[in-house]
UniProtKB/TrEMBL annotation:
<dbReference type="InterPro" id="IPR006093">
    <property type="entry name" value="Oxy_OxRdtase_FAD_BS"/>
</dbReference>
<dbReference type="InterPro" id="IPR050416">
    <property type="entry name" value="FAD-linked_Oxidoreductase"/>
</dbReference>
<dbReference type="InterPro" id="IPR016167">
    <property type="entry name" value="FAD-bd_PCMH_sub1"/>
</dbReference>
<comment type="similarity">
    <text>Belongs to the oxygen-dependent FAD-linked oxidoreductase family.</text>
</comment>
<dbReference type="Pfam" id="PF08031">
    <property type="entry name" value="BBE"/>
</dbReference>
<dbReference type="Pfam" id="PF01565">
    <property type="entry name" value="FAD_binding_4"/>
</dbReference>
<keyword id="KW-0560">Oxidoreductase</keyword>
<keyword id="KW-0274">FAD</keyword>
<dbReference type="InterPro" id="IPR011251">
    <property type="entry name" value="Luciferase-like_dom"/>
</dbReference>
<dbReference type="InterPro" id="IPR036318">
    <property type="entry name" value="FAD-bd_PCMH-like_sf"/>
</dbReference>
<dbReference type="InterPro" id="IPR006094">
    <property type="entry name" value="Oxid_FAD_bind_N"/>
</dbReference>
<feature type="domain" description="FAD-binding PCMH-type">
    <location>
        <begin position="343"/>
        <end position="514"/>
    </location>
</feature>
<dbReference type="InterPro" id="IPR012951">
    <property type="entry name" value="BBE"/>
</dbReference>
<dbReference type="InterPro" id="IPR016166">
    <property type="entry name" value="FAD-bd_PCMH"/>
</dbReference>
<dbReference type="InterPro" id="IPR016169">
    <property type="entry name" value="FAD-bd_PCMH_sub2"/>
</dbReference>
<keyword id="KW-0285">Flavoprotein</keyword>
<protein>
    <submittedName>
        <fullName>LLM class flavin-dependent oxidoreductase</fullName>
    </submittedName>
</protein>
Length: 756
């Protein structure tokens, strides 16, 4: 007796009759309605009276919501594997993870040849199927380097591009009956999908034994392979028929390990009885039988997956609520969660808490491990420190709600995992907004605890200047609320140095009226950068506070001159108000082009997030300044001339930012007018590293969100004078062991004293 302990699933096998197309779709919909898990269709492209199976699968996916779909089985000789892989991934994405891939090596060769396929011997067909599986899985491995290269006898891939990544890990089920095919199931497949009427020699028990032996030889557990079965056509005319079928199906699970049962069903009454009467009885019988037998159930990780686990993490004791959604290096979703915008990480475990209590569990668990810990909200930070190699990442991306609490005071509550584009979209219907960087995909948590230099900062200040309360999980797992009356010292620290003191689980901010804005772009020739850059800076300082501008500079490339693009936002929708503000910018330097629009502020900060792939080797440096002195202008010009940056940018601050007292928040830079950052990778980064120190000597302070360097001096520039002293005292109180040490760590006061 063999029971592999898989979750039970039930489905239908519907004939794709072309003359009854609407009925076929209706049967699929009925399968879903009665609670079945799977709908399948045979695939015989040479049958002119059948619908094309792939077209049918796609159509049914659009007409259903929950049920999984598969070919039973798809005819590989007429469906090239690389194309099939992309089609499968696409359908899985469009159906939100509801596609599984049933494959057959080919049969009815006369029909296949008639359609242009090549007739293969049984041995050749198995070879071709194994090559196809390799190509398909390589195409799906979107995060692997290079193209797909498989030099098979029957199927080849010569540098085919990878991707897209399917929504979930698509299972590959093989229809197999003979020993050679069964051994392939054991080595390579996720499931065995025979039809009951075709299993003769070897028998079910013998077939399972062949699969299990092949799996073990390949270093796999037999439990990795699901056993599916197309049942014989059944009469289900009364309760006794349903009872007998349930008995037979339960026995097939408890004695032979089958866990997915697919009923040939072209009649509604069969589907109704199978879903409403047979399936529940089987679940009940199997559940009691497994308890009596002590059968292990649930998912199993392969030996290969276990080898990818990082040392120093107690994977077996991840809190159950977190384990449900945790991601390990072997998991399908790992490529989507390993990296940030900048850094391609290799964490050993990504925890994805869904509420504050789970964040506390995650912090407590991570604190007990012997590996680094990082915290991620949106993952867009330039520093790249929201991931790591071999450690734990606490990803708060699922804490992403946005709620307007009080329309009168414009107070809203937001989760740290929300993106600022989502915030802008939620506030826009109320005529409200929040200055929050320049890009809608930036996460709330990282920006709203560090600063927040945005499109209307000169009029309304930094993002942190509008935070009125924060909920935070501390290093010891405690959950606190911090505001002006409660834990006010922590509230002070969170606004500017938040990453050092805990994991923020919610923020309350007060927005302000923002509707349509004027957005202008003016492009300057920067051949004479030493002259143009200071003029732009002087023009910004002289402008009304309703105007904020960023100047993005790019060195000469491909015969094109160095240029700078001034992006200007005026928080007023009236062009007649905006025009006199914009006019002085047209006199800053040689203009290569200009344009202006009236647009919703929420349209300027849209979120289009589709994941982070990360890059390696990016260097970014930052500094603050009050005016662009001749020395600073010369240093910036030298960087452009040497092509020592991919992009350099000046962001306007000043105005309302400087209305706040330097000691009111942990962000103490309240007299400067600009933030400068420059970045590059590869040889460009090396040139930047050689030229930056000369420019840095003339800068005044540092905005850490744009800095990749880790020198201790950065802390003193980011948190000048008494600010750093106060932060060290608070660090000793709230995080004395330095758990939160991945984001420009502040040493606790006691540790500094001991070191000195």
């Amino acid at each position: 007796m063999t029971d592999y302990g898989h979750e039970l699933r039930f489905g239908t096998f519907i004939t794709p009759q072309a003359r009854q197309a609407d009925d076929v779709v209706a049967l699929a919909q009925l399968s879903e309605a009665v609670g079945l898990d799977l709908v399948t269709f045979q695939d015989h492209p040479y049958q002119s009276n059948f619908l094309d199976t792939w077209t049918l699968l796609s159509f049914v996916a659009a007409r259903t919501e929950r049920v999984k779909l598969a070919g039973n089985v798809l005819n590989l000789p007429l469906r090239p594997p690389a194309v099939l892989a992309r089609a499968a991934a696409s359908l899985d994405l469009l159906s939100h993870g509801r596609f599984e891939l049933g494959l057959g090596s080919g049969a009815f060769w006369e029909g296949i040849e008639a359609m242009g396929g090549t007739k293969l011997t049984p041995g050749e067909a198995v070879e071709a199927l194994e090559e196809a599986i390799e190509i398909i899985r390589e195409i799906w491995d979107a995060g692997a380097p290079g193209g797909v290269r498989v030099d098979g006898k029957h199927h080849k891939a010569v540098g085919a591009r990878r991707g897209p990544l399917p929504q979930h890990r698509i299972d590959i089920w093989l229809g197999a009956y003979k020993p050679r095919m069964l051994r392939l199931v054991g080595r390579k497949a996720d499931g065995w999908l025979p039809s009951m009427s075709y299993i003769k020699e070897p028998t079910i028990a013998e077939s399972n034994a062949i699969i299990d032996e092949a799996a073990e030889k390949a270093g796999r557990s037999p439990r990795e392979i699901r056993r599916l079965l197309n049942l014989l056509g059944s009469r289900l005319t009364d309760a006794e028929d349903a009872r007998l079928l349930a008995e037979q199906v339960a026995a097939l699970t408890l004695e032979h390990g089958f866990s997915t049962f697919i009923l040939p069903a072209d009649a509604p009454e069969l589907i109704e009885t199978f879903g409403k009467e047979v399936a529940p009885r089987v679940r009940e019988k199997v559940a009691s039988g497994r308890v009596a037998a002590g059968t292990s159930t649930g998912a199993v990780r392969s030996a290969a997956a276990l080898t990818l686990r990082a040392p120093g993490i107690d994977y077996d004791h991840v809190p159950p609520a977190l384990a449900e959604v945790a991601i390990e290096p072997s998991d399908h979703a790992y490529p989507q969660h390993r990296s940030t915008y900048i850094h391609r990480g290799q964490p050993g475990l990504v925890l994805r808490p869904r509420n504050a209590a789970e964040v506390a569990e995650a912090v407590t668990f991570a604190a007990a491990q012997q590996v680094p810990m990082a915290v991620r909200s949106g993952g867009h930070g330039i520093s790249g420190r929201a991931t790591n190699d071999g450690g734990i990442v606490i990803d708060v991306g699922q804490l992403n709600s946005v709620e307007l609490l009080d329309p009168v005071t414009a107070r809203f509550r937001v989760g740290p995992g929300a993106r600022w584009g989502e915030v802008a979209a939620a506030l826009a219907p109320h005529g409200l907004g929040m200055s929050s960087g320049d890009y809608g995909d930036v996460g709330v948590g990282g920006l709203a605890t560090a600063g927040g230099i945005g499109w209307i900062s000169r009029q309304h200040g930094l993002t942190i200047d509008h935070v009125v309360a924060a909920e935070v999980v501390l290093a010891d797992g405690r959950q606190l609320r911090a505001d002006a009356e409660n834990n006010s010292d922590l509230f002070w620290a969170l606004r500017g140095a938040g990453g050092n003191f805990g994991v923020v689980t919610a923020l309350e901010l007060e927005a302000y009226p923002v509707s349509n804005v004027v957005f202008a772009q003016i492009t300057y020739d920067l051949n004479d950068a030493e002259l143009v850059i200071p003029r732009w800076a002087e023009t910004v300082i002289a402008a009304p506070r309703a105007l904020t501008s960023f100047l993005t500079m790019v060195p000469a490339r491909s015969g094109n001159p160095a240029f700078g693009q001034a992006m200007i936002v005026i928080n007023d929708p009236d062009p007649s108000v905006a025009e006199p503000m914009l006019q002085p910018f047209l006199d800053v330097g040689p203009v290569l082009g200009s344009r202006a629009y009236v647009m919703p502020y929420s349209g300027l900060i849209q979120s289009h997030f589709s994941g982070h792939d990360g890059v390696d080797g990016l260097v970014s440096h930052s500094g603050l300044l009050t005016t662009v002195t001749p020395e600073i202008a010369r240093g910036m010009s030298d960087i452009l001339k040497a092509k020592a940056t991919d992009m350099m940018q000046l962001r306007a601050v000043g105005g309302a930012v400087n209305d706040v007292a330097p000691d009111a928040t942990a962000y103490a830079h309240r007299h400067q007018n600009f933030c400068l950052n420059a970045g590059g990778s590869g040889s460009t980064a090396k040139r930047l590293e050689s030229l930056w120190p000369a420019l840095e000597a003339h800068l005044d302070g540092l905005y850490l969100n744009f800095e990749t360097g880790t020198e201790r001096s950065h802390l003193e520039r980011a948190f000048p004078g008494k600010t750093l002293e106060r932060l060290r005292v608070l660090k000793a109180e709230y995080d004395p062991k330095g758990l939160f040490n991945s984001n420009f760590p502040i040493p606790p006061a006691k540790a500094v004293a001991a070191a000195e």
